[in-house]
Amino acid sequence: MSASRTDLQRVRKASPKRTGARVANVTIVDVAHAAGVSIKTVSRVLNREPNVSTATREQVMAAAAALHYTPNVSARSLAGSRSYLIALLYDNPNAAYIADLQTGALSRCRAGGYHLIIEPFDTTAADAPDAIADMMSKLRTDGLILTPPLCDHPGVLELLDTTGAAYVRIAPSNRVDHGSVVRIDDMAAAREMTRLLIADGHRDIGFVKGHPDHGASHQRLAGFLAAMTEAGLTVRPDWIAEGLFSFLSGVAAGTRLLDRNDRPTAIFACNDDTALGVMSEANRLGLVMPRDLSVAGFDDTPTARVVWPQLTTVRQPVADMAAMAADMIIEGRTEDEAESQLMAFEIIVRGSTGPAPRAALRD
Amino acid sequence: MSASRTDLQRVRKASPKRTGARVANVTIVDVAHAAGVSIKTVSRVLNREPNVSTATREQVMAAAAALHYTPNVSARSLAGSRSYLIALLYDNPNAAYIADLQTGALSRCRAGGYHLIIEPFDTTAADAPDAIADMMSKLRTDGLILTPPLCDHPGVLELLDTTGAAYVRIAPSNRVDHGSVVRIDDMAAAREMTRLLIADGHRDIGFVKGHPDHGASHQRLAGFLAAMTEAGLTVRPDWIAEGLFSFLSGVAAGTRLLDRNDRPTAIFACNDDTALGVMSEANRLGLVMPRDLSVAGFDDTPTARVVWPQLTTVRQPVADMAAMAADMIIEGRTEDEAESQLMAFEIIVRGSTGPAPRAALRD
DNA sequence: CGACCGTGTGACAGCGCTGTCAAGAACTCG
DNA sequence: CGAGTTCTTGACAGCGCTGTCACACGGTCG
Question: What is the tens place of the pLDDT at every residue in B105-125?
Fold first, then answer.
């Protein structure tokens, strides 16, 4: 212990070119010296390469630990083929969703000695692919995680395919079999949620669509329709409202569906923000939930637990999905054959849904 | 145009060691060749160093543009003193707050050719400083942005001071004159909000404290007390409830303050999440806002606009604060004398506050 | 008009690490 | 027991760039 401490002191003093103010930098040379081997052998041990004797390996490990050695990412990136950098690309207004993705990806990155670069991109900008290419050549990222709606951007996908970059798409909507993919079964989730409403006695159920650019929107609608059909219920076209995944579009949809005499007793919105908009409008119209109206969402945003009544919704394991994506990149599972992972969802029942009002007793 | 295009082709073909699948990498050598100068001169132009003739500068710029050259960050970091990497460190449950910080910091990073590394840290873990030191030596970050509550962690501050790392603290609570700082005047903001409630006729005002570890909590309480005192109003100790910045602590505070006969007509909570908890509890107790109770928060989280009624709150320019912090690091303004920036806040009046009920008419 | 200075430019070393190759040690087998 | 094979290790080049130094040139000044 105290010996290694002394070593450290010496090494620090010996190296002449420390940029004074920075953290002390122990290099691979110091470790090699301390362990009595060549730097290449240290490199082998650190990279878990085969063909190193156990004795050597342990010596090196001990020396590295004693010196608190941490390999320099830039040097590794420059010399080798890996940069230990993963970029998370997004263009998504939903802060909570992004935060969850980051948390998940970061947990896996940290475990693997990787770091996460986050880069927001404006999907609508014409030069989005250029900006991404620029970033990739600057940083030499080992892989990209694409989130909706970026994961469906044709130009971006084309760029990545032609350059052969490693990338994983999270919850893509179209071309689901294109590239490596991590997603949930949106259709099945929406079907289950609809079944829940039906089981509560609802027969007059409205639906608010999601943003047409997100493929999940269409799958969720399909799930809704499937559940209605299998229950023998008719779907009224005027009870299906447009939506854009935003709170305000939910308010507008709420007005369309609720500010009338023949309104549905339950509304299933394509995501939580929209559902919250519907609830806000229901409040304005004096409807009490779930007595007069049941509302269900999709995503389980933090806000869903905070409104009154709390929102019944579908939970996607967003963090787990991002962790899986990071994993696939770190382990190089995007290389040969693209992989597709289907993750489990969960229906979260809270106060915003309840038994359908018995028509005879009201009005 | 077509000439340079041809050059590009040739260069790509000529360089033997492209890792096939990656993005084509134009190096500084290619640019130097195309411009007919040495690589050092190209480097000078790219780094805006002085003593380059205008003619040379323009030649180099043209060649770089034609070749779509982007300097490799790792190589720059390894060879030079800057890494073009800024780390945003956080340990904060509030996704929206972090997302805003990221957005702000990223906007400035991108403008300066920098990249943002995000690193969550568990403040309570004993080895937080070690983990940060580890990250710094791995990545050689040019600077760190510390957010609450990390920006008040004594061990972390000590580490950064001894290593001489560049860092900026966002909204620190204690030792405000320590290191470079970006913040708002929490006390003034809380005072103004309280004045607003008083101007609405409220005399019976409750307060929910923030997390005791965040200095902002204390300053906000001080602002509240100052406004009450200057208006000649007495502050009832039993109308000041503990809080932890969380929704649940808001619910608990709501129970304490509202589930009784002599309750305040207005409650000012130290942040939005807490205020939302109070509102949730008010809803449960059948109180209608703002008729029976006014509630004000602090932060202007996205949720504040989404609940019913919408929450009156204080908006901090979170993104701007992070952008300022990134700016200070990029321009090296943390080096010599520490800088302290005070940013402007804004009172956002929405539906959750209104005139005080006239006591004579109710009860 | 020679000593001196500022300006513009390039040669070169080397940042810390990994990939390649070669060489010695240890082991196998007919 | 010698040739062939595998294991273990190290020397060395070089990734793409910046920092240092040196050099050539034109201008200034006593």
Answer: 999 999 888 999 998 888 888
Q: Which one, of B41, B15, B44, lies nearest residue B27 by Cα?
A: B15
Contact B218, B207 (CB under 8 A): no
List C-alpha distances in Å: B139 to A23, A292, B77, B85, B252.
Answer: 11, 57, 9, 8, 44
Q: Protein footprint on strand D: which nucleotides are under 7 Å from a CB?
A: 7-20
Give CA–CA dist B305/B220, Å, rounded. Answer: 22
* A216: number of Cβ within 10 Å: 27
Task: Judge contact between A206 and A225, C-beta under 8 A.
Answer: no
What residues of chain A, 32 to 91, have a C-beta less than 8 Å from chain B?
A: 68, 70-75, 77-78, 81, 83
- Split at pLDDT 50, 70, 90, the class of A239 is very high
Q: Which nucleotides of C are covered by protein (CB under 7 A)?
A: 7-20
Which protein residues have a C-beta closer than 7 A to any atom of strand D? A 37-41, 44, 50-53, 55-56, 75, 78-79; B 17, 25, 27-29, 39-40, 43, 46-47, 69, 71-72, 75-76, 78-82
Query: How many other CB atoms sit within 10 Å of the CB of residue B20?
Result: 6
Written as six digits, the tokens of B71 are 């300097």
Contacts of A355 (CB under 8 A, 6+ apart): A200, A201, A290
pLDDT per residue as tens digits for the range B229-245: 999 999 999 999 999 99
- Check whether residue A76 has its CB closer than 7 Å to nucleic acid strand C: yes
- B255 contacts chain A (CB < 8 A): no
DSSP state of A304: G
DSSP 3-state of A71: coil
Nearest-CA distance A168 → chain B (Å) = 16
Domains of chain A, CATH where assigned: 5-69 (1.10.260.40), 82-184+319-332 (3.40.50.2300), 186-315+347-360 (3.40.50.2300)
Q: Is A346 helix (H, G, I), strand (E, B) or coil?
A: strand
**Rounded Cα–Cα distance for residues B266 and B194 (Å):** 10
End-to-end CA distance of chain B: 83
Determine how many CB atoms are found less than 10 A away from the CB of residue B172. Answer: 26
Q: Please give the structure tokens belonging to residue B87.
A: 């780390």
The answer to whether A330 and A112 have CB atoms below 8 angstroms apart is yes
Which single residue is written with the structure tokens 């700082």?
Answer: B181
Residues 157-196 of A with CB under 8 A from B: 163-165
pLDDT for position A21: 35
* Distance separating alpha carbons of residues B270 and B243, to the nearest angstrom: 8
Collect all residues of chain B within an 8 Å Cβ-Cβ radius of residue A164. 20-22
Length of chain A in terms of residues written: 363
